[in-house]
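Quick one, tokens below. Sequence please?
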């Protein structure tokens, strides 16, 4: 006869994982969302998904799995702002950089094929990697303004910075992100 210890072992594993990764995972998420409440909601979603997966299948690299799920949850949260992001960041405004990549056909299409889903996920992954390369002040202004739709006036109140300074920081962020995403765009179009 089998013992009923398995659920207890899984619960212990979940509790141990939360203690081991909770603070660093929350810090990772906080850097990428506009409020602590959003970060905590996403973290709860990650823990919920983790508890469901642990009960059904083993996870080989817990840390990598947790951060991938967190990144996906953050991405899902930001996807609703895709159109504004593309217009401003990727140069779709009149008179803007003609060399800027235009992902709008791929990201805003209604078609849900494996190829479009792969490219969408790749775009968001590369965007977040490029955001991580930015200086903290540029990254924060970009995330607040573009991904969280916080007006510059509100950001100025939060930070005590001049609006022109914030606009300048965002512009440097946009230029960096365009360069990084242009590489991805060129690779996709070479296929």
């Amino acid at each position: 006869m089998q013992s009923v210890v398995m659920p207890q072992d899984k619960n212990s594993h979940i509790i141990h994982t939360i203690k081991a990764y909770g603070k660093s995972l929350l810090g990772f998420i906080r850097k990428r969302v506009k409020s602590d409440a959003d970060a905590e909601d996403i973290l709860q979603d990650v823990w919920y998904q983790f508890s469901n997966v642990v009960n059904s299948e083993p996870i080989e690299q817990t840390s990598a799995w947790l951060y991938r799920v967190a990144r996906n949850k953050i991405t899902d949260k930001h996807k609703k702002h895709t159109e504004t992001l593309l217009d401003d960041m990727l140069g779709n405004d009149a008179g803007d950089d003609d060399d800027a990549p235009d992902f709008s056909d791929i990201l805003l299409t209604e078609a849900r094929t494996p190829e479009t889903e792969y490219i969408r996920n790749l775009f968001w992954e590369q965007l977040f990697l490029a955001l991580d390369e930015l200086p903290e002040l540029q990254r924060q202004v970009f995330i607040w303004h573009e991904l969280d739709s916080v007006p510059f006036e509100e950001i100025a109140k939060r930070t005590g910075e001049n609006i022109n300074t914030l606009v300048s920081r965002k512009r440097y962020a946009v230029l960096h992100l365009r360069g990084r995403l242009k590489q991805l765009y060129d690779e996709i179009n070479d296929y």
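The CA atoms of residues 126 and 181 lie 7 Å apart. Confidence is low (pLDDT under 50) at residues 1-7, 92-96.
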